[in-house]
Design goal:
Blueprint: H1 2-24, H2 26-54, H3 60-78, H4 80-86, H5 93-98, H6 101-121, H7 123-138
Helix pairs in contact: 1-2, 1-6, 2-3, 3-6
Length: 141
């Protein structure tokens, strides 16, 4: 399970770096990626493991929705709690949070992480990936 989370973290982090690179340039994308990837590994993977543990008793759509909501909730906790602990005065309710760049980035990253993890976990995607790899393996020069 942790291996799947590491792959999902790498893919979602690289997607975020690509988004930053497209919108602001490669230098900015690499700069944000340098800080974003360790955060995804240190905070995102344990959060996702916690989400899987908390939703393991659910089945089907109920598990998917609960996992999505937990990913979003834990992403929203990532920004205000450290700011509150450090004594920052920017916290002015939910409207102040929505304007913060880090809050939006945390939500987008959590959504990408969740989507990537669910796609990797999906049996249909696993079978398609396996068939594709077998087809690539059958190619001979």
């Amino acid at each position: 399970m942790v291996g799947r989370k590491v792959i999902a973290a790498l893919i979602s982090g690289l997607l975020m770096v690509t988004m930053y690179s497209i919108s602001d340039g490669i230098g900015i994308g690499i700069f944000f990626g340098m800080y974003l990837l360790p955060i995804i590994f240190v905070y995102g993977i344990p959060s996702s493991v916690l989400s899987d543990y908390a939703t393991k008793s659910f089945k089907g759509t109920k598990r998917i929705v609960a996992s999505f909501l937990l990913h979003l909730f834990l992403a929203t906790l990532f920004v205000p709690i450290p700011m509150w602990i450090s004594g920052s005065t920017w916290f002015s309710g939910i409207t102040g949070l929505l304007d913060v760049f880090f809050f939006i980035s945390a939500l987008i990253t959590a959504i990408l992480f969740w989507i990537t993890d669910e796609l990797i976990k999906n049996k249909t995607c696993q079978m398609k990936r396996r068939k594709f790899l077998e087809w690539v393996g059958d190619l001979r020069i």
